[in-house]
Amino acid sequence: MPQTSRRDFLKTTTLAAAGTSLPFWFSTNTAMAQASSSPNERLTVGCIGTGSRWNAVGPAAFKFANCVAVADVDANHAEAGKKKVQDIHKKDGRPTQVDVYEDYQKILDRDDIDIVTIVTPDHWHSKIAIEAMQAGKDVYCEKPLTLTIHEGKQIIKVLEETNRVFQVGTQQRTEMGQRFLTAIAMIRDGRIGDVKKVTCNIGGSSDSGAIPVADVPQGLNWEKWLGQAPLVDFRFKPGGRWGNSRCHYEFRWWYEYSGGKMTDWGAHHVDIAQWAIDQNGPGQGPVSVEPIMSVHPVPFVDGMPQMDDRYNAATAFDVKVIFKNGVEMHIVNNSPDGNGILFEGTKGRFHVSRSRIKGKPYEDLEENPLPEDAIAQVYGGKQPTSHMQNFFDCVQSREKPISDVWTHHSAMTTCHLANIAIRLDQTLEWDTESQNVTNNSTAQQMQQREQRKGYEINVPV
Fold it and tell me: Is residue 460 part of a domain?
């Protein structure tokens, strides 16, 4: 299908979706038809960021679209990404021409690219996503979507202005054996009565010890990798999963680039918990965030780390969050049930993780199963699919994906507030209507960050 015809098709389905209610099976059929179409009829995707996580995200997207370009500030990642695309395309008899860029803007400038995947360090997500939507691309972006609360407001503003389709990579909403969907369906069906307390065990961040200054690896544009963050020395020492460093996988443990486990796993479990207790819509969310306990590997003054040679995100914490509907949530790094979510209600309790659900309310499903359509109703009236298929379904139908920006921003607001609270060691009060901290001026300022010149996100909200 010529590019103009494909774009005309998308435009037509956008108008149709705006004027009618599509049956639940429409989007699934269209995406599967797209996946099985001839190579030249598929949508095209450009991949921004081709590091470790992309090795799962990229191939999942290639089931539905042809990749024509990759971009990464690490030339080694970019070349490896190109080879992976070519290997996959070659097996399917698809075109193997893949352009390689250091600058992601070159992907956004191409009119022949319909969709972008963004699998970069967290501090790059918002700027690239905003510019991609402004360039007319639909977006699949890994979690956590934002570095700050303010960035979430900026993304929502641009999304509403551009009407793009945007899926966040929180795969627990779709996959993991549908355990989390089952958990939400149990709560909706009243299996534990009224939910009173939720505990999200997300684990703690790593403690690296001192990391020495090191030479920048060949092929890595360190200045570009830093982006909006302050210009600092590259640091590295052997250890950890990829070596203790300021870069690549280990960026997660630095507040300059991410939010530690609070945003890394909080983006999954806090998201599911707020979905389950109906606290991720407009005017909903936390009203207070209290740091019961926290441990950081470095000292903090006014919320800022005082050492720059080691990881600084919290290694241990217990944050108490009270939501507008009165439900109490604890975000912890450790609990007796292990990683996952514990729901406690007036009629019982159960724990859900990626590997299992345990508790009497779940055991009772054997004799008293959920209604036949219970999980589909949680999933917006549709039958659950893969996370990537849901995205491509929605690219065709122009419906809202299962992991939408609005609910993700709500969950990330809770996680960002929890991080601000433990960095300041102060209880924060939050106004769900104005979306602002009301009792602490320093915390108000920490809702956004100064961005290095040349890397600003220029979207007033």
Answer: no
Domain of 118, in residue numbers? 3-175+388-397
The answer to whether residues 419 and 337 belong to one domain is yes
CB atoms within 10 A of CB 334: 13
Report the alpha-carbon distance of residue 198 to residue 414 in Å, rounded: 14
Is residue 363 assigned to a domain?
Answer: yes
Q: Are 188 and 317 in the same domain?
A: yes
Counting the structural domains of the chain, the total is 2
Give the Cα separation of 412 and 418 in Å (integer).
10
Same domain, 99 and 158: yes
Q: Are residues 152 and 249 in the same domain?
A: no
Residue 353's identity, in one-letter code, is S
Residue 95: CB atoms within 10 Å: 15
Q: What digits encode the pLDDT tens for the residues 103-158? A: 999 999 999 999 999 999 999 999 999 999 999 999 999 999 999 999 999 999 99
- What is the three-state SS of the chain? CCHHHHHHHHHHHHHHHHHCCCCCCHHHHHHHHHHHCCHHHCEEEEEECCCCCHHHHHHHHHCCEEEEEEECCEHHHHHHHHHHHHHHHHHHCCCCCCEEECCCHHHHCCCCCCEEEECCCHHHHHHHHHHHHHCCCEEEEECCCCCCHHHHHHHHHHHHHHCCCEEEECHHHCCHHHHHHHHHHHHHCCCCCCEEEEEEECCCCCCCCCCCECCCCCCECHHHHHCCCCCCCCEEECCCCCCEECCHHHHHHCCCCCCCHHHHCHHHHHHHHHHHCCCCCCCCCEEEEEEEEEECCCCEECCEECCCCCCCCCCEEEEEEEECCCCEEEEECCCCCCCEEEEEECCEEEEECCCCEECHHHHHHHCCCCCCCHHHHHCCCCCCCCHHHHHHHHHHHCCCCCCCHHHHHHHHHHHHHHHHHHHHCCCEEEECCCCEECCCHHHHHCCCCCCCCCCCCCCCC
C-alpha pair distances (Å), 75 with each of 100, 187, 221: 9, 48, 8
How many other CB atoms sit within 10 Å of the CB of residue 84?
20
pLDDT digits (tens, 9 = 90+) for 184-231: 999 999 999 999 999 999 999 989 999 999 999 999 999 999 999 999
For residues 331 and 200, the answer to whether their CB atoms sit within 8 Å is yes
Per-residue confidence band for 29, with pLDDT thresholds at 50, 70 and 90: very low
Contact between 379 and 403 under an 8 Å Cβ cutoff? The reply is no
CATH no. for residue 82? 3.40.50.720
